[in-house]
């Protein structure tokens, strides 16, 4: 064994020289010059291929350490090797390529600072920490810049979970008599891992070359820097709400020069807020928050409810959370969908209403079928086309089996565990805390700040309470304003949809920024027929309630497009045009709906006024949402309900 080890160390020493490639026949491309021109750095993308596995290893000092901790939030190259490997196109190749990269770090400070090289042995019986140190000594001439660690594990038992997580198969070689030899049969694979512990590329023998790897690392570094600049730019925008918008509004998408403005989730840094303070002292313009006597508010309930709100494990197949219809940065609704889409892409027939200020709603859902947030929670959880759970008991049993909820309900509810009631109370407590006021309008109207509202918005207010008559349904009080009468009205939108009163051609967005007028007959051939929706009638069975829908609050309305119960209007200007035309005539049209006779300037003033209703604490609520844990099933665990372990990331 000693002689074999010395031979392999000699071979490793020989292979660190590029000139040695001339001595080898059938050597891999990684030993020579790259035979093709690399694409420009940053001109291509490296999508995440999956999560990087973790496990317990022994570092260079022989101390136990998590493999993820060893990455140390840097980009990492991970190679599986063993020191006695004699296949020049196997482990020695990866060490040669790593040596070339390490040498390049002498000339590239960014590479040395941001990239870490790790060679992990899969032969712990031979490759003790001392042996790995001896092996590493061959590569000392690569320079002191950067970091290259040679590590091992305490045993094959400790090694196996790591190998499995990277799908790295090894097999002990045998001699002609069937006796195990010192060698291993394995497929060489080197993994490029980003600071978020995601695999971004996997290099096999034919593609393992230091120039290619450095190009990939530089591309990832450039993209991260660009994302950082985008984030800083977004946070410096002089808008009333900087965080509340889709990551990329796709403007200019149809142009060849388009570059995405989306931000990686990891760059959306959140900051937890003391949400209970908004209930205890509501922002300017809002009345006291109604809190039911059987569910007094507490920080523990809000925190638990927030976790549940963002937990995809509450859906049937563990893929869908409340926040996927009520997206925080999109006004706690979904700006990009007229009507919601649930689990597995199942269509929902109505638009996702905002969660903002739902604490004040006397009726919930567009048809007003629920009266409390605690009851409302269960509708989406059980709806087949939303989160699709088969029963209440199914949901409760799932939560009971998740380790990271252990004790949470008991702590929040004075010893009471998971139940239909406590789950509803927890999520309701979080939703109840999402109160938003202190808008420019509030400071102008209730705070006596005459400079808070521009002249156009002030003219819009006069129209709102006067000529346009909007205040008849969107109430404004002397001390506070909810901008809703908490009632239901027939404006004609539902009637028009039920009667099929649609133009012969309809606009269809085929790509962001690209909309075509498509003949209705074509749409009917390929599209699913619109489901019947008669509004409040479905709740009361009173024919006079056909096509009545709840009056939404107008607070934060500039953030919550598209509008109406079916998301049929994309802009506030379209909404104003609709009401100016007197809605859609039908025998049950609400008498408050009438033609308004507005001119173009007045329409714009009304829009400007509604834009002034964005709350001053919106960014605080969104940043708090960004700080919430996003819970998911464990890696390789498609259905944790069957008893496997669950991890939270």
From TrEMBL:
<keyword id="KW-0408">Iron</keyword>
<keyword id="KW-1015">Disulfide bond</keyword>
<dbReference type="GO" id="GO:0020037">
    <property type="term" value="F:heme binding"/>
</dbReference>
<keyword id="KW-0349">Heme</keyword>
<dbReference type="InterPro" id="IPR004852">
    <property type="entry name" value="Di-haem_cyt_c_peroxidsae"/>
</dbReference>
<dbReference type="Pfam" id="PF02630">
    <property type="entry name" value="SCO1-SenC"/>
</dbReference>
<dbReference type="GO" id="GO:0042597">
    <property type="term" value="C:periplasmic space"/>
</dbReference>
<keyword id="KW-0249">Electron transport</keyword>
<keyword id="KW-0186">Copper</keyword>
<dbReference type="GO" id="GO:0009055">
    <property type="term" value="F:electron transfer activity"/>
</dbReference>
<keyword id="KW-0732">Signal</keyword>
<dbReference type="InterPro" id="IPR003782">
    <property type="entry name" value="SCO1/SenC"/>
</dbReference>
<keyword id="KW-0574">Periplasm</keyword>
<dbReference type="GO" id="GO:0004130">
    <property type="term" value="F:cytochrome-c peroxidase activity"/>
</dbReference>
<feature type="signal peptide">
    <location>
        <begin position="1"/>
        <end position="21"/>
    </location>
</feature>
<dbReference type="InterPro" id="IPR009056">
    <property type="entry name" value="Cyt_c-like_dom"/>
</dbReference>
<keyword id="KW-0813">Transport</keyword>
<dbReference type="Pfam" id="PF03150">
    <property type="entry name" value="CCP_MauG"/>
</dbReference>
<comment type="similarity">
    <text>Belongs to the SCO1/2 family.</text>
</comment>
<feature type="binding site">
    <location>
        <position position="91"/>
    </location>
    <ligand>
        <name>Cu cation</name>
    </ligand>
</feature>
<comment type="pathway">
    <text>One-carbon metabolism; methylamine degradation.</text>
</comment>
<feature type="binding site">
    <location>
        <position position="85"/>
    </location>
    <ligand>
        <name>Cu cation</name>
    </ligand>
</feature>
<dbReference type="GO" id="GO:0046872">
    <property type="term" value="F:metal ion binding"/>
</dbReference>
<keyword id="KW-0479">Metal-binding</keyword>
<dbReference type="InterPro" id="IPR036909">
    <property type="entry name" value="Cyt_c-like_dom_sf"/>
</dbReference>
<feature type="binding site">
    <location>
        <position position="186"/>
    </location>
    <ligand>
        <name>Cu cation</name>
    </ligand>
</feature>
<dbReference type="InterPro" id="IPR036249">
    <property type="entry name" value="Thioredoxin-like_sf"/>
</dbReference>
<keyword id="KW-0560">Oxidoreductase</keyword>
<comment type="function">
    <text>Involved in methylamine metabolism. Essential for the maturation of the beta subunit of MADH, presumably via a step in the biosynthesis of tryptophan tryptophylquinone (TTQ), the cofactor of MADH.</text>
</comment>
<dbReference type="InterPro" id="IPR051395">
    <property type="entry name" value="Cytochrome_c_Peroxidase/MauG"/>
</dbReference>
<protein>
    <recommendedName>
        <fullName>Methylamine utilization protein MauG</fullName>
    </recommendedName>
</protein>
<feature type="domain" description="Cytochrome c">
    <location>
        <begin position="455"/>
        <end position="614"/>
    </location>
</feature>
<feature type="disulfide bond" description="Redox-active">
    <location>
        <begin position="85"/>
        <end position="91"/>
    </location>
</feature>
